[in-house]
Known about the structure:
Blueprint: E1 21-23, E2 32-33, E3 39-43, H1 47-53, E4 57-60, E5 67-68, E6 77-81, E7 98-99, H2 110-126, H3 142-147, E8 151-155, H4 158-162, E9 169-177, E10 186-194, E11 209-212, H5 218-226, E12 234-235, E13 238-241, H6 245-254, E14 260-262, H7 264-273, E15 281-291, E16 294-298, H8 303-318, H9 320-329, E17 331-336, E18 351-352, E19 357-359
Parallel strand pairs: 7-8, 11-13, 12-18, 13-19
Antiparallel strand pairs: 1-2, 1-5, 3-6, 4-6, 8-16, 9-16, 9-17, 10-14, 10-15
Helix pairs in contact: 2-8, 2-9, 8-9
Amino acid sequence: xxxxxxxxxxxxxxxxxxxxxxxxxxxxxxxxxxxxxxxxxxxxxxxxxxxxxxxxxxxxxxxxxxxxxxxxxxxxxxxxxxxxxxxxxxxxxxxxxxxxxxxxxxxxxxxxxxxxxxxxxxxxxxxxxxxxxxxxxxxxxxxxxxxxxxxxxxxxxxxxxxxxxxxxxxxxxxxxxxxxxxxxxxxxxxxxxxxxxxxxxxxxxxxxxxxxxxxxxxxxxxxxxxxxxxxxxxxxxxxxxxxxxxxxxxxxxxxxxxxxxxxxxxxxxxxxxxxxxxxxxxxxxxxxxxxxxxxxxxxxxxxxxxxxxxxxxxxxxxxxxxxxxxxxxxxxxxxxxxxxxxxxxxxxxxxxxxxxxxxxx
Length: 361
């Protein structure tokens, strides 16, 4: 965004007819009032509503270099032809985005995540971004946030990215972690059982109960089934959906389940923050190599926005505060990634046997 002038506000009130000033390199960088039939770019968090209620005609979906002062926001943009009825809705003004790192946001890591985000946010603001939240969203259900128009940055699981979120978000990258199974921004889930349990065999799996954090989890469900090639993608035994990896470990300890696949970063974090969860349990195997959790943003992010965010993350991790934040988070470095780096996950899809699943979540 730094290649073009910042938007110019005309001081109008929300809901008034839009008399915005535009600066554009196609207009010789001179302020011009919008006229009917001008083609502009709206940058607005409610662009879908604008198309339905405020804009007469969609012209194209490509990005141009125009910035509209009254509704400028870096979250989403669309090229439109201005109509006489174009107004600025109240909810377009000064709308702040939301950011989160929900997948490993354990209570003992919140402060480190906040410190890391502070550096990322400062980097975005230096690049001229507006609406950047000063603090992270903690403890909220991640799935709704991934779909919200307020989304600026979050972290999802690899399977939802290629299923639930396909074509709905932009892939920014992934962290590489200081864990034994890491190879760049990839890792392998750990298959856990109680100490002294008989190791699973192709014959015994059908009699075993699996504790699974989620039926859409790449690390906890798909990795478990794919850890046993003989199963051909179908789990033959009982399944208990627990809602979280720590709940799965608790079920193993209680003897209510026989085995579970647990994300390797989560295990490393539990060993620090909740070591009691690992008492009496042992690693008996590993799942297939999978990409680490993707960092995502709104689908409207173009090449320039993606470059800004990636650079801001790199800069934050290399700062003194970022280096300190990365230690408890076990972050080794950031890798830029796009959706293509996760497409192979689709080939790992699995299913469970009919009627063998129940939930404790």
